[in-house]
Fold these 3 entries.
Entry 1:
Amino acid sequence: MSSLDGISVIFDLDGTLVDSEPNYYEAGRQTLAEYGVDDFAWTDHEGYVGISTQETVADWKRRYGLRAPVEELLAVKNRHYLDLARTSARAYPEMRKFVELLAGEGVPLAVASGSSPEAISAILARTGLDSLLPTVVSADEVARGKPAPDVFLEAARRLGADPADCVVLEDAAPGAAAAHAAGMRCIAIPYVAAQADAPEFATAQLLVRGGQSEFSARAAYAWLERSVRAG
C-alpha cells in the first residue's frame, strides 16, 4: 500500500512540467510578425502565461486589429510552436523526478493544459514523459479554458477521481484559480516570480515562491504525504 493512496495528481504542462514558455514566445513572435506586428516582446508574452492558445490568439486579434480568422492564427502559431517543440522541449529535472516518484507509487497522474492536443503530444513524446502521463486533457476539448475549472474537472473524470482528492501543480495564476474553482488542492510554482503575490496564488495550499529554482521533488512528495495523513 502506498503512503499516497487516494490521491491523484494533475500537472499543468507549459512552465510547470516543461520549460516551454520561451518556445511559445518565439512561436508567437514569428506568428505576429507574419501579420505585420513586429514589436511583440517577452513582457507582452508574460501576460498570456497560463491562458489557452486559442484564447491568446483571440486576444491578439482584438489587441492588434488582425483581419485573419482566429482559426487561421491558431493554426499558424501551432505550426511554429510544434516545429520548436519537436526539437527543443525540455522537462524540468525536479519535475521529471517528481513524476517518476509518483508513477513508481502507482499514483494516478494526468496532464491538463491550455495547449493543443498536438502540442501536448509532441512535448510529452520529446521529453519521454508520455509513458508516465497517459491521461491528457487539452483546453481545446472542454468548453472553457483556465481560469475556468473545466480542464481539471475533465482530468479528474478521466482518472475516475473525486476532485477533492486531486492535487494540481500549476505555474500560472489562471491555473491556480482553476484548481481552486475545481475544489482541488494546488501546489503553485510561479513561472513569473513577480506574480507570486497574485491573489490567485494565495488560494494554493503550497506556494513555492521561488518557482522552479526552489522546487524539490522530495519536498513536494513529503508535503503530499502530510496532506494525506491530515485528511
Entry 2:
Amino acid sequence: MAFNDDSFIREVNEELRSDQMKGAWRRFGRYIIVVAILIVVGTAGKVLYQYWDDNRSSSAGDQFLAAMKLADENKNDEALAALDKLEKEGHGAYPVLARMRAATVKAQKGDAAAAIAAFNEIGKDNGVPAAVRDAAKMRAGWLLIENGSYEQVSAAIEEMAVPGNAFRHSAREALGLAAYKAGNMTQARQWFQSIVDDTDSPRNVANRAHMMLDLITASGKAPAAQG
C-alpha cells in the first residue's frame, strides 16, 4: 500500500482541529504501530541477512528457504516443525536464524505470548551475535506495546534508546507509543521529542513523532516543550 507522509499528517491535523483526540488515536494508532513495526522488521531483516550472508551453507540454506516458504504460505505448524529441526541440526548461522523466524511465525499465528518469550530468550542468549540479540529485543518490544505494559516494553528495549545504537529510533518510538497507550503523556512526550531532536532520525519516524507530539499537546495532559 502506498503511503504519503504529508497526506497522512494532514488528516491527523484535521482530527486535532476537531478536538477528537481519542477518535484520532482509535483511527490512526494501530496504523502507526503497524507502519513502525514494518520498519523494525526491515531493519532486523537487513541485520539477519548480513549475518546469513556471512555464514552460508547450501544444505541448511535450502532448508531455511523451504521453511520460510511454508511460513509465507501460512503453513505455520509445518514451518515451525521445519525450523525446529533446523535449529537442532543446522550449521553456521542457521540455528539462530531458525529461532528468529520461528518466533516470527508464532506471532503470525497470533500467539503473541509465545513469540515474545521466544524473542526474549534470543535477546538474552550471549551465544547469539549482539546485532541479532538487539533485533530480537526490538521485536519483543514492539509486540509488547499491544500485549504488555510500558514497564515491560521499557525492560525489553530502553537500553537501545541511546545515541549511537542502530535501533535507537525504533526503540524511542516504541517507548513513546507504549507510554502514550499507558496514558503517561509526559513520558511519551519525552520519547517523541528525543526523536525530533535527533538530526539522524529517519524522516518518516520524525514525522510520526511530530504527529504524536501534536496529539499529546491536544490532550492537554502534558506541558508543551519549551523552545
Entry 3:
Amino acid sequence: MTDRKAELAANLARVEERISAACAGAGRKREEVTLIVVTKTYPASDVRLLAELGVRHVAENRDQEAAPKAAECADLPLIWHFVGQLQTNKVRSVSSYADVVQSVDRKRLVDALSRAAVGAARELGVLIQVALDVDSSDRGERGGVGPDGVERLAESVAEAEGLRLDGLMTVAPLAGPYEGRPRAAFDRLMEISSRLRVAHPAANMVSAGMSSDVEEAVAAGATHVRVGTAVLGVRPRLR
C-alpha cells in the first residue's frame, strides 16, 4: 500500500468511527448515512485511491476542476455530486458528468439543468440548497434559497423534464440566527424536509454536515454527509 493510500485509509477509518458513533448515539443504523467525500483541489489519483478503498460517492464544487477529473475517472463506479454554486453557463458541462446537483437554488437554474439533461439524454438528481441565513425566499450568502422559497422551487424541479427531485441540502450558516449553531440549523432543515416530503415523498435525501459538524448532522437526521478535509487533509491553497 502506498503512503498516500495508507493515509487515506486511516483518515477514512477515523471518519467512519465518527459517523458510526454518531449513529449509535442517535439510535440510527449506520447504513442510514451515506458518506460523500469532497475531493475538490485534490487530484484524480486520490479519487482512484478512494475508489479502491470503497468510496462510491464523491463531490466537487468547481466545474473547471471537476470536468477533467470526472473524465479521467470515468471508468470507476462512482456517483458524482456537484455541490458548488452553479452558474448557468456551466450547466451543460456539469450535466455531462454529475449524477446529483446539490446546489439548486433558483428557477433559472432548474430550467437550464432540465434543457441540458434532456439534451444529454440523462436524468439528473437535484437537491434544493436551503439558505438558513435568510428567512424569506431570498438567496443566502453562500447560495441557496430561503425556507419560504423551497416549496415553489421544488414544484419547478418536479415538473421539469430530465430532473428528479431527490431532497434538500444546506451548509451551516456563517451569519443569522443559526450562526455557530449547526445542530439547530440541521434540525430546521429536517423540519423543512418533513414538509417537502408530504407533497414529494421520494424527495427524502437530506445532505448536511461537513468535517467539523458531522456529528450534529447525523444527530439531526441527515442521510448524507459531505466530508473533505477529514479524509483528504488540509486543502492546498487555491492559486
